[in-house]
Design brief:
Elements lengths: L1 H20 L9 H21 L7 H15 L2 H13 L3 H30 L1
Helix pairs in contact: 1-3, 2-3, 2-4, 4-5
Length: 122
């Protein structure tokens, strides 16, 4: 049943991300992606904070909102939450390393993916 809640939330989040992408903004800077990531971070922070220590929030609701909606909206919200949790637990080195590696490795991953696509296309 959990998969259904994640799927429904994921579809909702993806539609929200798409809706934001339709806002007519003309700029070389990716403002809409930044806005999406910030909204996702605020939303996942709210969900985690709201559900913390409460017995009246179902696991299915958390799956729908946190994993589904936030995951479909932006996985950056999950990254931000995990980085914040490392900072909150005073694991500063791990937090810094996680942030640095996430950004660098993902940017390098984009480069590798593009190069691989060029090889496949011939």
């Amino acid at each position: 049943m959990g998969f259904l809640w994640v799927a429904l939330g994921g579809a909702t989040g993806a539609m929200g991300r798409y809706a934001i992408s339709l806002i007519p903004v003309k700029s070389a800077f990716p403002f809409l992606t930044l806005i999406t990531n910030v909204i996702g971070a605020v939303l996942i922070g709210f969900i985690v904070g709201f559900a913390a220590g409460r017995d009246d929030v179902s696991e299915n609701a958390i799956l729908f909102w946190k994993t589904g909606v936030c995951g479909g909206f932006t996985t950056f919200s999950t990254f931000s939450l995990e980085a914040f949790q490392l900072i909150e637990s005073k694991s500063y080195f791990s937090a810094g390393l996680y942030i640095l590696l996430s950004v660098l490795c993902c940017v390098i991953g984009i480069l590798c993916g593009r190069k691989l696509a060029e090889l496949v296309k011939g």
